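Risk register update: the risk that structure generation would not scale has been downgraded. Supporting records follow, first protein first.
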Amino acid sequence: MTTAQRSPGRMSRRGQGGGPTAYDFRRPIKLSREHVRTLQMVFESYARSCGTLLTTRLRVVSNVSLISIEQLNYDEYVAALANPTIIGVVTLDPLPGTVLLEIAQSAVMTAIDHMLGGPGGAQPERPLTEVEMPLLRGLIERMLGELRYGFESMVDLTPKLKEIEYNAQFLRAHAPGDAVVVASFETKIGAEECISTICLPFNTILPVLSRTEAIVLSAAERQVKDTALRNLTAGLSAAPIDVAVRFQPIRMRTDDIVDLRPGDVVPLGHMTSRPLEVTVNDIVFAHAVPGNQGARLACLVVPSPNESSSKESGRP
């Protein structure tokens, strides 16, 4: 497959082809559907917050929307990036590994121009000056704050920007064959449009996803789930169940059972000092002593024999 030509500062949209995907034995572990859905909600939340941040910070209509979440090898990710581009090298304390936040240089120059009061538009392709670099660092740190907000339902992170690079080919953040999770975003700053990405180490994010296994629900979905749980609990609480209070069973020979007649006395092996068993479907869940309540037979629930003996012996 040949790589499509890219204009400077742009990144192609990967994964749009409808053909079969080759199986890579170097990365047999794949993100499950539940993991992808969880990450989708995290990054969609980040995209919305980041779009609002750019609009208010740059004073120009901006929008960030999630395009895709892919599992790639690090060398595949680097090969797909434009050169030059702006790459923020980030740590996510307390998680290990290095995260890359990549934004097209044209979009960065447009953002800086707006921060300095300019109109945006076409920008020169050049390294950032000493005046522009602190502005970019401040903007990226604000964006990382929105990333922390997106992940707060899964894990408490403290993103920190370590450095900013221009060429991913010279950035050895990971080994070439390491698996990474890449989230691609369509970023619009005024009239400027580009594809920005966030590259997470697979081994860093997988344990977090495994701990959260539960699907992240929206407010409406959570309300429906809570209502269903209340209805189910109420229905189970009102369901009639047959309960039996029984003596300890005995064993009899078949011919003795056949010869039983009205008036015969069958001796029970149940000790008088031992309470009866309270059962549901032959499952013992309590013990009781027989009695009556007015004209009706009844039983009084008492501690089980094991609990009584433990208290008497002083064992916990």
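Supporting record for the second protein:
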Amino acid sequence: MSAAVAVSPTKAELHAMPFVRKLDGFAEEEAIFGLELIAGRLCEVSGEAALSLTISLVLQAQERSEPVAWITDKEHAFYAPDAAANGLDLDALVLAFLPDASSKARAADQLVRSGAFGLVVIDLAAEQRLPPALVTRLLGLAQKHTTAIVFLSGHETALGSLISLRATTRRTRRAHGEFVCELVAVKDKRRAPGWKHEEVLRGPTGLY
């Protein structure tokens, strides 16, 4: 029996990969910021690469047939053509457009309460606060249904002490339209903070 020979992809093949795929040796099993890590938790992600890394989470969920809901407003929704071109199944994504943080949180309450969703993303945009009672209720529902709830926040400490994982992000441009997107955990109730997660992503116009 002959031994299997690993063949590295060519540069052209790498550039043809969807933007959410890891390049240049970032192995799939090395990923830290994934659905297993955030299931049943409230997570707050801020910074310039927050949108990109969260869309990567949505793709993880869709690959596992986990229903996903994304709650935002019409001014801050992600650029759908780029997301679809890079693998996001828009037909399988529940999108809700609501005008303010409180209504977004109440919608998330109803969605998570159904027990049908593996991941719910709440884009708070520039809003800094949610009523503590709503956050408390979402925490209980996330734990009950093992649902990952991710808040996209304009401020790294917007949602107070009930957040289980808080992370900041940044991106560094590389050649050929690629970016290194780095996430740093500044708070993690399940492990020591300070750990980092990186993905090399292609950056289509509109997504960043």
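The mean pLDDT is 83. On this basis the risk owner (M.S.) recommends closing the item.
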